[in-house]
Design goal:
Helices cover about 30% and strands about 30% of the residues. By secondary structure, the protein is an alpha+beta fold.
């Protein structure tokens, strides 16, 4: 059936309004206020849409997230049933400290077609190209790099890997250095990091490492349209994590998920820049107008482009 094209503009407006609201807190050293502004604006816009929407990936559980919590119903209760995944402010530290790369992100799929991800970590790997035999989470770093080198007809020293700069990744980073792979270390911004493999212009050959599970699902919903390969495996370390996963229907705690298992059917993805980063430029206010850039994908129409917009503030 698919999601009607009219929803592209509606969800574009959602991410833009959230980005604008958060923009006013850029550089204010208050990531909680910046996030709350994005959440409030996003929720307000979502409730205007003729849909029966439900959050499957949000700001957390009901007890910890008064708005945009997992299970929250949104929209006018008229129209199609849609699963919604949100990260109203990806890169809270980026916004608080006026650093590059803060985004407002939303992904939407038809009912039961978007993976309901628990609030836990995920081991991820992504490359451009849909060949399933190049990289795998169960391979060694060396094997993945050699396979990728052969696949892309490059030497290891010509490849660039993007990875979160975290102590947990020390062994991976050390191995990449030994293999002479170029590194792009990111401090935050798990979604945008994964999306850098989507186009050759970003010069990122592989994204890998452990980051947020919900962010993995959001990234996958965009990578699905870019002919990318993505694999993710949730990490359940505590009994509480495993219980929550079981309640969400996850049986195999060591399962590797690929794109078609994370997002199936039609989907829309929007990521609007709050501060200028690798993917898109940030919000810029001039007089009573503001400029925004949004990466938008729509699977059924094969749309994947950056929409630039100049709008009145109001």
């Amino acid at each position: 059936m698919g999601i009607d094209k009219k929803f592209i503009d509606l969800f574009h407006k959602v991410s833009v309004k959230a980005a604008l609201a958060s923009h006013y807190f850029v550089g204010k050293k208050d990531k909680i206020a910046a996030d709350k502004a994005a959440v409030d604006a996003m929720r307000k816009e979502l409730n205007k849409i003729d849909m029966k929407g439900q959050i499957v990936i949000g700001e957390g559980e009901l007890d910890n997230a008064p708005m945009l919590y997992i299970g929250e119903k949104l929209g006018t209760n008229n129209g199609p049933e849609l699963d919604i995944a949100v990260d109203p402010l990806e890169g809270t530290n980026f916004a608080a400290n006026n650093l590059p790369g803060a985004l407002s992100v939303i992904a939407v799929a038809e009912k039961n077609n978007l993976f309901n991800a628990p609030e836990t970590y995920m081991d991820k790997i992504a490359i451009l190209g849909s060949n399933k035999n190049v990289v795998d989470l169960d391979n060694t770093i060396k094997q993945n790099i050699y396979n990728l080198s052969e696949y892309k007809n490059k030497q290891p020293h010509e490849l660039t890997a993007c990875i979160l700069d975290r102590p947990r990744h020390k062994k991976i980073i050390d191995e990449l250095i030994r293999l002479k792979v170029n590194l792009k270390l990111i401090s935050d911004g798990d979604i945008s990091g994964a999306l850098l493999v989507s186009q050759e212009k970003f010069n990122i050959d592989i994204f890998l490492g452990i980051g947020g599970g919900p962010e993995g699902v959001l990234a996958a919903s965009a990578l699905d349209v870019f002919d990318c390969y993505f694999q993710g495996r949730f990490i359940f370390e505590t009994d509480k994590d495993k219980l929550r996963a079981s309640q969400m229907g996850i049986i195999d705690f060591k399962k590797k998920y690929e794109l078609n298992e994370i997002v199936s059917g039609d989907s829309i993805f929007c990521a609007t820049g709050i501060t200028t980063g690798d993917l898109v430029k940030g919000i810029n206010i001039e007089d009573k107008k503001f400029y925004s850039e949004t990466l938008i994908t729509h699977k059924s129409s094969k749309m994947k482009k950056i929409i630039k917009s100049l709008q009145d503030i109001g």
